[in-house]
Amino acid sequence: MDGVGEAARMVGAVLGGRLRLVRLLGEGGMGAVFEAEDLAGGPRVAVKLLHPELVANEEVRRRFVTEGQLATRLVHPSIVRVFGPSVAEDGTPYLVMELLDGSPLAAYTRSHVAFPPEQAGPIVYAVLQALAEAHRQGVVHRDLKPENVLLARGEGGRFVVKVVDFGLAKVMDAAGGMGSRTRTGALLGTPGYMSPEQVRDAKRVDARSDLWAAGVIFYELLTGRSPFEADNPIAKLTAVLVADAIPIERDAPALERWRGFFERALAREVEARFASADEMAHALVLVARGPTGRPPGVIQTPPPPPAAVQASYAPPAPPPPEVQAPAPVPSTLPAPPPSEALEAHEGPPTVSLLLAALLMVIAAAGGFIAGWLAGRG
Fold first, then answer.
1. Other C-beta atoms within 10 Å of 182: how many?
2. Is 2 a catalytic residue?
3. Residues 351, 355: Cα–Cα separation, whole Å
4. How many CA atoms lie within 13 A of 33 on its CB side?
5. SS3 of 220, please?
6. How many helices (H) and strands (E) does the chain have?
7. What does the alpha-carbon distance between residue 354 and residue 126 come to, in Å, rounded to a whole number?
């Protein structure tokens, strides 16, 4: 499957004498995902097939199967269900997963669509609940990003959040790296969503790196922009090491009440962040309640992706009558005093500290960046 054209030619193939690939859903650095028909009469499923160049790597094949088996234990309403790994007749391993009808959050974040807090809050709360379950079982995602968070139609017509690809970062680690648009190189994560410690050493991260990524996603949903000013992937990697996140109220004063939350969620020092997904979710609820005392509600219907992305992302179907239509982005929001647990940290570092940090970037990330550039060659 060297490119989307070759992956598309797989449509019609039958795996294991049972699953017929009927439609190519997408392709990434690891492989291609298809909609598959069960010839035995079962429900349609999604099938992820490894790229041929990765199949040739015995360690990648082994990890793919192992991580697929571990993923079957992650049963949670906000985690895409993995039914198990299998091997095609030609030796290509694949995963069988639940088939979803929806759009990835990337359809919105790439187009800089800002969600009101009453929409973004429940989405990220569900992501944090998925992370909490995975972390309890010792699984760290390591590549959480909008592409791996789906907004899908659930039972009863309500929208549900589904996190995909738990554990598969280890497979790309075995392959030598991963990235949002490349299959080669030494990039063990996605610039813009990698925590500072992951930039320094992607193989030595814990669950708090996932929480950092969740914080970035939440920030992007609320503002329509990244929390770090950078024009390219390398600049993004550098920014998270030497700069503080842009205060969320800088361009959106109505979001000032969330300032303390993001100062913790996106703190450069690991120990200054939320210690667990449960703690971060609890803090989110406290801020979201505000003076009303109400927790985040059900996920409201998002606006459809802009026309520029509809060609590659199928938007959800129109909501049924019982699903509340999205509220407009409010011009102002009440700003209650921040919780004691969300007090502001110290201000941005001085120029001298930034210069020292920049030297650290050159020393700690030089080899990382060189490997990333080599992978793009």
1. 14
2. no
3. 6
4. 16
5. helix
6. 13, 9
7. 36
47 beta partners: 34, 96
Return the half-sphere exposure (C-beta side, CA atoms, 13 A cut-off) of residue 109.
Answer: 24
User: Whats the size of the chain, residue-wise?
Assistant: 377
Which position among 38, 90, 101, 143 bears the catalytic label?
143
| 228, two tokens | 């770090």
Note the pTM of the prediction, 2 decimals: 0.74
Domain boundaries, the chain: 4-98, 102-376
What's the order of all strands across the beta sheet hosting 31-38? 14-15, 19-27, 31-38, 45-50, 93-98, 82-87
Quickly tell me which residue has 């210069």 as its tokens.
Answer: 355
Query: What single DSSP character describes residue 338?
Result: P
Q: Quote the CATH superfamily of domain 102-376.
A: Transferase(Phosphotransferase) domain 1 (1.10.510.10)
> Which residues are bridge partners to 51 per DSSP?
none
Residue corresponding to tokens 């606006």: 303
Contact (CB, 8 A) for 228 and 236: yes
Query: What string of DSSP letters covers 165-229?
Result: -TTTHHHHHHHT-B-SS-SSSS-BS-TTT--HHHHH-TTS--HHHHHHHHHHHHHHHHHSS-SS-
What is the distance between the alpha carbons of residues 178 and 200, in angstroms, rounded to a whole number? 16
Q: Which fold has domain 4-98?
A: Phosphorylase Kinase; domain 1 (3.30.200)
pLDDT, tens digit (0-9, with 9 covering 90-100), for 100-158: 988 899 988 888 989 999 999 999 999 999 999 999 999 999 999 999 999 998 777 78
